[in-house]
Amino acid sequence: MFSSKSKNYQIDMCNGTIFPKLLSFALPLMGSSILQLLFNAADIVVVGKFAGDNSLAAVGSTSSLINLITNLFIGLSIGTNVIVAKDFGAKNEKELKETIHTSIVLSFISGIILTVIGVLGTGYILKLMQSPKEVLILATKYLKIYFLGITATMVYNFGSAILRAVGDTKRPLYFLFSAGIINVVLNLFFVIVFDLGVVGVAAATAISQFFAAGCVIFCLIKDDSNIHLNIRELSINRVKFIQILRTGLPAGFQGVVFSLSNVVIQSAVNTFGPITIAGNSAAQNIEGFIYVSMNAFYQAAISFTSQNYGANNFNRIKKISIYSLICVFFTGFVLGLLTTIFSDPLLKFYSSNPAVIQAGQIRLSVICSFYFLCGMMDTLVGCLRGIGYSIMPMIVSLLGACGLRLLWIGTIFQIPIFHTIQTIYFSYPISWTITLLTHLVCFIYAFNKVKNFRYPFQTK
Q1: Is the pLDDT confidence value at 72 over 80?
Q2: Side-chain-facing half-sphere of 253: CA atoms under 13 Å
């Protein structure tokens, strides 16, 4: 049955005006994503202020490696989002129930696999990334503790994907707000009182993530609507498992290769020394707030187009894609401009070293000026995945973004006159522009093709 108290948190994506509902979905998601990013931001700020530049570089330089190892499984949660939304839009409760229980089992399995990979392999991978000796030991300690808590991160991501698929982005915001407070308090307590440095911030992050994951699972168990989770019914449905893999694995594989290209870029940045690494890390963290703000519209595009694909509302899908692109453009442009203008005070939150601040400003001046292109590129990917295309955007993204960046580092960057940190950073806007235009052509082609077909799970 589709009426319950928890329906107050859901959004009817298949009827009514689009723009207000898009904002109602995206703004709480934007807030929760920013809070999630604050987990790592709190780590970087605390170690930068109280544990020194080497600790700042150690924590900050691990983000590309964390993404490399986790993105394959994060992609599966995107598969969960798409399939849950389609089943919900088609009003097929049996299919919806099977998808939800399969997804939660997958989240636990994903977390266990990642724990083994992260704890055993991070030290070796950091060496391959040419991490300086003064950073290597600290980064290894941080990552091993971080990955001991990665199962909670997976459970939270899969559980939140279920809630997002039906338009509930408010409750994840409440959970992360509480978890964020726990993280910041524990960061300060472990680092200042017990002088645990990177070990303390890693432990604080893990504990706060367990809290957030527990809240999501409790929410689904207590939910009295069509997304109710029954612990006794946890199992993997073969058909749903395959559907999630078909959508999620291409997304996850794309994320892995994206992260691999970023690891290569991080390795190139590492050759410029600890000061540049620290400035780059601080700038990346600031950029992250812009990225997750834009990413809220990517997530909205996935859920809105998936539900309407399930309901066969193709005219509405076209309008959703246009509204999403407009929203993400203005979000990226305005936030990027403000970040560039206020780069100096923003970077001072992370370090008081003038050299580190200057290094961070170099990156921000390049990336933030064009960041809206990245948001528009991702939003088109979300629209494509929502209408059943997952492999196409993966191939385009891998060739257009990752391939071009690696080619850039292997050719242009190797020319002596262009062997600068600025040259590394310019690989991003160039790759975003080419990939965005290609995705636009692909979406027009895919939309015209699928609008002649009905989603197979829709009930009459």
Answers
A1: no
A2: 15
